[in-house]
Amino acid sequence: MGRRIGPAKIKKYGLEFKLKAVQLSSQPGVLIKDVAESLCIHPFMLSKWRKQVRDGELVGDPPALEPQEAAELRRLREVEQQFKRLQMEHDLLKKAIRFASERKAKSSPSSRQTGKPIRSK
């Protein structure tokens, strides 16, 4: 049989492992190479994870909120939803007013319909 070229199996690392590796490599005086070697991963992979953490692409669970903060956050979301709904209602009313005024302008008597000349001031 033919020999397989390349890695036999690609490992998938979990979020917790990646964040722990980044945390270990971020300690003062610790080299990325040493941390990567101790975790049996390539230093480039650890550098990539560090960049993802810096860019906000790789984040852990958000810290638990205090009950008061959670209530404020819920209230903020409710207010945002209400604001969006009111904006939609406002836009709809503006369209209805525009439609009604256009319709009224079309249906108003003109000189052709009444046969009387329109007076100008």
Description:
The longest helix has 41 residues, at 67-107. The chain has two domains: 12-60; 68-106. It contains five helices and no strands. The chain has helices at 15-25, 32-38, 43-54, 67-107, 111-114. The model has no long low-confidence stretch (mean pLDDT 84). 62% of the residues lie in helices and 0% in strands. The protein is mostly helical.
Brief summary of the model shown:
With 121 residues, the chain is mainly alpha-helical. It has two domains: 12-60; 68-106.
Overall geometry comes to elongated
What is the chain-wise order of helices and strands? HHHHH
Average pLDDT: 84
**Can you tell me the residue ranges where pLDDT is under 50 for at least 5 consecutive residues?**
none
Q: Based on helices, strands and strand pairing, what is the structural class? A: mainly alpha
**Whole-Å distance between the termini?**
102 Å
Q: Please, how many domains? A: 2
Using the CA coordinates, give the radius of gyration. 33 Å
Count the beta strands.
0
Oligomeric nature of the chains: single chain
So how many helices? Answer: 5
Major beta sheet, specifics?
Answer: none
Classify the beta-strand content into a percent band: under 5%
Percent helix, as a range, is 55-70%
Q: Would you spell out the secondary-structure blueprint of this structure?
A:
Elements: H1 15-25, H2 32-38, H3 43-54, H4 67-107, H5 111-114
InterPro entries: Homeodomain-like_sf, Transposase_8
Protein name: Transposase
Organism: Ramlibacter lithotrophicus
